[in-house]
Amino acid sequence: MTSALYGLEQTADGVATLRITTDETPHVGDAALTALANAVDVIKRDPSIRVLVLEGGEQHFCSGATRDTLLGADAPQAIARLMGGFPRLLLSLEIPTLAMMTGHAVGGGLMLGLWCDVAVLAKESLYGANFLALGFTPGMGSTALLEEVFGVPLARDLLLTGRMIKGREIREAGVPLSHAVVPRRDVRDRTYALASEMAQAPQAAMGLLKGHISKRRRAQLERAIADELAMHTTVFGHPETRTRINESYPAPVVAGQEKETA
Hints:
Layout: E1 8-10, E2 15-19, H1 30-45, E3 51-55, E4 60-62, H2 67-71, H3 75-91, E5 97-101, E6 104-106, H4 108-114, E7 118-122, E8 126-128, H5 142-150, H6 152-161, E9 165-166, H7 167-173, E10 181-182, H8 187-199, H9 203-235, H10 239-248
Parallel strand pairs: 2-3, 3-5, 4-6, 5-7, 6-8, 7-10
Antiparallel strand pairs: 1-2, 8-9
C-alpha cells in the first residue's frame, strides 16, 4: 500500500498508514504537523484502528525542517513547535506506532521515525543527526534518544560529527537498533508484518502497555527538548549560525553521499 501525501489509509486488519512525506517533498513543516494532528484525532475516535504506520518516500523517509524554517527570524520558536509537536502527538496515541524508514532519514527526520514505538530501516539508506554539521545544536530529543537507540559511543559520534551512516553500518555495529535494519526491498513487508501482529493483540492490554511505555518516553522527551530549546535560543542568536546554515544546507542526499538536511 502506498498512500497519498497526508492521506490516512486503513487496511482490513486494523493497520492505518499515514504518508508524512514524499520523495518530491521530503521536508516537514506546519502542514505535516497538522496532518499528523488530524490523523491522531481520527485514530483516537476510531477503535477499529489498532496500529499506525508512518511512511515517507522510497528514497527519502524524511529530511527534517526546511531551509526557510531554519533561517526564519523566529527559528528557535518554529523549531520548538515542530520538534516538540511531532513526538508529542505520536506519544499521545494508545496504539503502537511504526516508522517505515525505507529511505534516508536525517536530523529531525531521523528523530521523527525514532519517536515511533518501532522503526524499520534499510541497509542501503543513510541515517544521521547532522544538526551540528549545519551549524546549530541538536533538537527533537536527539540528545537523549540517540543514546538509547544507538548506544552512547555511536550516538556521541553521530551528534558531535553530524555524519551520515548507512543502515548497514548500524546493523554491523551491534547496537540496540541493529535488529531493525533489513534490505531495502524487505522494509515494507517487515513493517506490515510487525504491524499486523501488533494489531491482533488485546486492545485493553495493548492500551495499558502503550500508555506505560509512552509515559516514560514523554518524560524523556520533555527533559531533552527543554535543554535543547535553551541551546537553540543561544546558538540562533549568533549571526554565524545563519551563515553556516545558508552555506551548508545541501541538496537532497543520494546513496553514497555523506551529508543532507536536518
